[in-house]
Amino acid sequence: MEAMKQQYVSPQDITGVDESLLILTPLHEEASEKIESKNTSFWSEAWINLRKNPLAITGLVLILIIVVLSIVGPYLNGGGDYAAQDLMNASQLPSAEHWFGTDDIGRSLWVRTWYGARISLFIAVVVAAIELVIGTTYGGVSGFYGGTLDIIMQRIAEIISSIPSLVLLTLLLVVFKPSIPTIIFAVSFTSWVGMSRVVRSQILKYKEYEFILAARTLGASNARLIFKHLVPNVVGQLIVVVSFSIPSTIFFESFLAFLGLGLPAPTPSLGILISDGFKSMLLYPHLILIPALVLTILMISFNLLGNGLRDAFDPKMK
Amino acid sequence: MSKEKLVEVKNLKQYFKVSGGQVVKAVDDVSFDIYKGEVFGLVGESGSGKSTTGRSIIRLYDITDGEVKFDNQVISGKISKELKRSLTREIQMIFQDPYACLNPRMKVIDIIAEGLDIHKLAKTKQERQERVYKILEIVGLTPDHANRFPHEFSGGQRQRIGIARALITQPKFIIADEPISALDVSIQAQVVNLMQKLQKELGLTYLFIAHDLSMVKYISDRVGVMYHGKLVELADSDDLYENPLHPYTKSLLSAIPEPDPIYERNRQRIPYTVDVHDYSQEQPEWVEIRPGHFIRANKKELAEYEKQLASKAK
Fold it and tell me: What is the complex's ipTM, to 2 decimals?
């Protein structure tokens, strides 16, 4: 163990330069600890990242335009009554009087399109909110407590998600007559499982992080661990999942309407308008094209925004 | 140094069930004491159970068997709520990974003040802020760091935030779980010096877990060597480095790099396998071969080690 004694090696030994020629720079302790960059929180950083993504911003702007139009649109042209008939002017092409034209019984397509978009968006947002509440709670409990409870809860979730959702939806909508609440119930019946899986996997990941252990050693309660430490770390992921869940619900609703399981007449939704327009597609193509275009723009915009949000919250995934 | 025991670990066992019905004996029958005001180093290779030992003491795991005492009170197994509460103030932990040990969504002030919030130690917002500022200065940071988020700091700064968080409840005993192994060498010295300074000023006791032997030697008063869940040797720091007896300790010491090119070129590493022990006749026991120098050996080996010590003493 003799050789283990430490030996001082001077800069001169290494470089061969005389030590007197070397000037030691004084160490500024204070300055070296200073952080010059601007103080950025998680949200402001995500927003900065999102702003750099032109596609996501385009999506966001288009969504905002459609949302505004779906709220005020019906009153701008035609009085806002989606069921009002103007039989003298049935099946018209777009004109100054009826901006999007009229359908076969003279209802203004402009009013019906934006009112339909409002209903489609409403259903999608409510379904997303239900998914968020049930999915987060279910996935959070399952992931946080783990063990046998986790195994049982995951098997139940698997059974629910293994039922073919279309069959289930058809059955549910045949039993309960189609209306906004029943459609919301039917769609959210299975769709929360996806959300719960995302939350569970995130909780499982963060649960083992040392900051959770640190909080435990400080005596933090489970409620504190969940709401102060785990949930804030999962929020970014949740927003991304929601931004993808909204277009898929809109799509599902349209799909059901096309199958004849949509809302009863005269209530419009984007799906019902497309389904109605399909009947006279060759004679009056604008009746299907306009609502289809709004639906397409809405879906693409949500997908672009979702992708942008995913990159903004987690730049590593790019 | 007073020889008052602060922590007593007796026959600590921590087994984990893994899939397939197998049991991993992460810590298997480990006993040691930590005296008030000392730095107790725990070394060993990855997976030797050093971190698990630390986490079992601080009750992050429910121990399988054995007993842990803190300040002459049993703190393992089922304990009262009041004791649990006081323990979470008196025993604290510093973690290994400076990037995972701070919640990325919380501001530094809230991270450090967490102990105050949980134990309701600060009566007003003003007091909470003042205490955080004070502790920030103690660990060499400044009050204007308080409103920033962890991702804006360097590894060494983050580790110091972690130390500040551990200190805010004014603990007596700190378990440092490889606090420097994830840091740059130049920053390691900074953090270790800070820990030493704090120990002297605040009268802390440390359990210092590490695999960097030179650093452990520098900071520890006594050192325990772990191998595969068992303590194999325990002695005063100087004693252990000068008179290593157990072949595993010798092997570990032979692996310390030195900033000396000639020594490094000729360095002889001593390999270690469990095959060097012949435990077919007699099982090894945990015995005190010299006052304060413990070793895990059977009678035959013990005689051998005695001889080694005697020849060294000449």
Answer: 0.84
